[in-house]
Amino acid sequence: MRKSTFSLVRRSSFVLLLLLCLYRLEGHAFERNLWDDGWRFAICQDDSPQQSVFDDSAWRLLDLPHDWAIEEDFHALHPSGANGGALPGGKGWYRKHLVLQDKDASSRYALHFDGAYMNTSVYVNSQLVGTRPYGFISFSFDLTPYLNKQGDNVIAVKVDNSHQPNSRWYTGCGIYRHVYLMKSTDVRVAQWGVQAITEVKKGVGNVMLNTQIENLSGRNRRLIVRQKVWNKNHEVVAQSSKALNVVASATMVSQQMRVQKPKLWSLSSPYLYTVTTEVLENDRVIDCDTFKLGLRTVKFDVQKGFFLNGENIKINGVCLHGDLGCLGAAINEDALHRQVKMMMEMGVNAIRCSHNPPAPELLNLCDSLGVLVVDESFDSWLQGKTPYDYSLYFKSWFERDLRDMVLRDRNHPSIILWSIGNEVLEQWNKVNNSGMALEDVNILLNNTRDKSALSQGDTLNLNSKLTQALAAIVRRYDPTRMITAGCNEVSPNNNLFKSGALDVIGFNYHQKKVKDVPQNFPGKPFLMTETVSALQTRGYYKMPSDSLFRMPGKKRPFTDPTFLCSSYDNSCAYWGSTHEQTWDVVKHTPYCAGQFIWTGFDYIGEPTPFNFPARSSYFGIIDLAGFPKDCYYMYQSEWTDKPVLHLFPHWNWIEGQTIDLWCYYNQADEVELFINGKSQGVRQKRNDHEYHVAWRVTFEPGEACVVARKNGKVVGEQARKTAGTPHHIRLTPNRQVLKANGRSLSFVSVEVVDKDGNLCPWAENNIHFSLSGDAKIAGVDNGSPFSLERFQANERCAFFGKCLVVVQAGKKPSNIQLTAKGVDLAPQTINIKSE
Ligand code: GAL
């Protein structure tokens, strides 16, 4: 009894403190409020909306995060090009009122953006507060000098994505991440101002907290900084307080704490502590800050690759861009969660945020689910890859942007490595890229260069010095992690390597050169920062499956009117490889810490090897709608303990046609294929360099069935049946209970099936959706990289038998009904609840 009262008290004081720190409760001197709701929005070319008197009453009312481009039609003439997703750019304005009744002269207000793409200018009461160019960085503006503290204020935000192209992939447009309004007093913990440096030694977790206190009051202040580490049971496991006299505008206070017998953060058990920092003056808490802390050790070893908590682990990673398919760039926690979970189920243990700092929610997810992260800053430095990209801003902004990335992210236990750039053109001495067509950028990137483009002699050139300067910035703010860069020039005379500033050698592609790494880079750990670039369309199979199709080939333009790429693992970009080829190298090379496959999910933009109407990628292991391609199961068979038996392709062909059947399997000695009961032979992987088995057979309708055996006993069976004509629709939601918070999502898979429930693999029926209850359709997709149907619609054609509808709960608890109908198909309805 006593104990439970005790723990109740303990729990409530923890929760109160957490709420205080996280949300800076209403009525306190400090507040942190999510400020997403109720913005007025319009696309507007001129700057009149910056004026407070501007009448925005006819503008649309919306909640952030928001991406205006995803709501529009694809078009060949949109200046972003197919590489940018063939969706529009433009200039968007957001406006909102801030009404204050604040008599406290010392209070301060800041507006914080997790991210807005791009060139974001904030105006308060008609005055420009500031502009931030980089569309992937988090930033804040101090509004205080511009505010009327007792009355109405007009906040206008201009997001300018009109200069196109400015990216090699789809970025989205608008305030696409969360926004916070922060209130504080004039003495506070600086933004991202607590740095945790941890070390685990002999059963003790040493936690050093370096805390930056800002004093904007212009006078001396006597303060106490009280810091606590809490475990998951809301018990304080370490704490320290320090009294200080804060004179200067900023003061650093360091406190060392010890967590006895710490629970480590690992992939299987990602234990998180909570750190709270309170600033007290005259016994009153005047500011508060909190973050999650994970105690773990990370090491890159020259011979053995990567170690987490002393355990040698292969980094089985994927690269991910930030868009969420049909939802666009607008961040949504449920959509991110679905992505990361699907990756984990495949066996992925790491994500490279390519090629920019991600939404903070992704890092939080990786912390709490146990996924490693490489956090990357830029896709270009001084030399641009597209006419209006970050290279235009690099000189003025790189120090600030790089600093802010490290400050924001450095306490995340999931982050194991910083990347200061991806395939930057400074790898070479001089690159002539003027007049380059967007679809040729990759060719430019992956051209082989002669020696004259590489570093000569022993003196370091400017590009090498720039590499050193960038690495020095990262080390200044985080001395604990190593630094890499994704390099597709793998000569040691690459200016970035030559600088000596990279701790971990990062190769993009060039798996055949991996064997030369110990000789070319003695004493350096090694990682494949980017690999594969296979090209696949879910559901499409190009035979013979043992021919390799490398595209686009060096001869341009490349055309293929199908706009399809084969889903046998027999199709890839010419600078890439098949999935099996690179995995074989990574698996059998102990000094290779691992790889990051390009890419985990398809993304909008970069439809290599095609151009418009193709407008999204073919590289994903999972398509844009979230349906796995076959190679998903190859990785699952290699990277997980789950039993895998995956036979493909489907079994609907022309009678007499020669068909290649492949099978991925594990945990079995052999597999045998039967066509309509007749054996087509037993197959087994002969050694650990083989990843699939195959049969070449003649199609006859009926059933292809594979049986797996271990020690002579059947351990698995999978059949592919010839489907009849499309008969009805099958709806499968990934969640049936949502939160009534206006953001919660259910991803509903839609399949066209025959009367017995077999997927019709060639079906292209148009499916119409309708909803009842407080909910809306957030997006539709089918995974086709060249469909020009809108993402925001209530209908979608099936693509190789499938499509997707995303249902978004409203704010009222509701019984939601989703109905799907199609011509000549029996409709289906499912129930989803929001509460
Ligand atoms: C790489 C580049 C990626 C993507 C990929 C496609 O060179 O780093 O961003 O473009 O090629 O194969």
From TrEMBL:
Domain annotation Glycoside hydrolase family: ranges: 729-830
Residues of the DUF4982 domain: 656-715
BP-aspect Gene Ontology terms: carbohydrate metabolic process
Domain Glycoside hydrolase family 2 catalytic, chain residue ranges per copy: 304-546
Superkingdom to which the source organism belongs: Bacteria
GO MF entries: hydrolase activity, hydrolyzing O-glycosyl compounds
Gene3D superfamilies found in the cross-reference section: Galactose-binding domain-like, Glycosidases, Immunoglobulins
Signal peptide residue numbers: none
Glycoside hydrolase family 2 immunoglobulin-like beta-sandwich domain location: 194-296
Keyword Ion transport applies: no
Pfam families in UniProt: DUF4982, Glyco_hydro2_C5, Glyco_hydro_2, Glyco_hydro_2_C, Glyco_hydro_2_N
Domain Glycosyl hydrolases family 2 sugar binding: 90-183
Keywords, ordered alphabetically: Glycosidase, Hydrolase
PROSITE patterns, per the entry: GLYCOSYL_HYDROL_F2_2
Family: Belongs to the glycosyl hydrolase 2 family.
Name of protein: Beta-galactosidase
